[in-house]
Write a sequence for this structure.
DNA sequence: GTCTATAGAACGATAGAC
DNA sequence: GTCTATCGTTCTATAGAC
């Protein structure tokens, strides 16, 4: 028998939100952004539409909440590695080793990403909300690069933001290539390019 | 009165193909890949479905033919500039100047691209056909880099292909960022990163 | 009693079937 | 071209926490 403690309102609300986000992750990943309906998400979480709209303004914001979790939870692969100030070679080795699994794991998310980018290209309001996330991701990269410089006892490069954008662009593009023509990624492109982009 | 010369069969065929491709470009760009139908393309060109299928195996191949024209006609911006062996600074200046118009001009094509990538992610046959184009584009890049080295009287770098892939990935990613958050591209990211990627 | 999270009916838009 | 099903969103009623 489970110990059933009565939940306070806030606890219940948080629990519902979690359930909705988990359900949304599963349903979106299976049916895509366009193919998934709010009803399906609600039902998968054991609620109804009303619950979804009590927690998220609309379908777009539901996806964006998912994206936020994705960005803050894992971040793109190298971001954590950078901060420690490890040598580029060490980072490169680590990256090359985990790249295939990383790409595989990203397939579902990649589909969602492109669907939503497409959606955002047609609606300027959505585009702006997604742009906020890009800016935040860029800040995270810049922060990582800065902390890396500190950890290595170097002065942080003056073109931090430029490098952050370049890294973001490169990773986005590389994941696209990886989905379509993964052979192109063999031979250490990722690590070699990372080295060039980090070079002082 | 127009001088109406009788066309040979081959000329007529080529003219029809041209008309179909032009129509496809217009219709795809207006309705997207998914939203456009073969009927719409045929009608816009003044033919019927039969004409389309006489020239292209299916909708996918019709798009791929468009992509082929796109790749060989213009190629990505810097590819022509690279070959002359101009200094990076000169290339950079040229690129930065034309970047905004370039991005604007690419909006329609970008939408088509992402739609087709998405489509390719779901169908492995299509994915493979698209991958062929990626490989060819990569070869073009590598060729450009090689000719650049020759023009500059340098020995061509040993990691030509790596650099070619890196350039492709970077440009793909940058165009995605440009669609969603163009502000991120201000401040010379493109040229500065190009310089880093070309560096010996 | 008050407030709010959720259920579920209602509405307008849109796409697909026929 | 019409009809139907479906979906995103809005609105209202209600049950339960405070």
């Amino acid at each position: 028998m489970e110990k059933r403690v009565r939940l306070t309102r806030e606890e219940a609300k948080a629990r519902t939100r979690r359930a909705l986000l988990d359900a949304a992750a599963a349903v979106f990943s299976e049916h895509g952004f366009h193919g998934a309906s709010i009803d399906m998400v609600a039902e998968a979480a054991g609620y109804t539409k009303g619950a979804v709209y009590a927690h998220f303004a609309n379908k777009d914001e539901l996806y964006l909440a998912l994206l936020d979790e994705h960005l803050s939870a894992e971040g793109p692969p190298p971001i954590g590695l950078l901060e420690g100030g490890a040598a580029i070679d060490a980072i490169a080795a680590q990256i090359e080793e985990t790249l295939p699994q990383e790409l595989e794991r990203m397939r579902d998310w990649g589909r969602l990403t492109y669907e939503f980018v497409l959606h955002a290209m047609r609606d300027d309001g959505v585009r702006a909300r997604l742009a906020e996330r890009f800016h935040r991701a860029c800040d995270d990269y810049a922060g990582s690069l800065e902390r890396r410089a500190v950890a290595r006892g170097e002065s942080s490069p003056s073109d931090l933001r430029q490098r952050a954008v370049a890294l973001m662009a490169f990773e986005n593009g590389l994941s696209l290539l990886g989905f379509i023509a993964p052979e192109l990624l063999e031979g250490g492109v990722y690590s070699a390019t990372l080295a060039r982009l980090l070079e002082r």
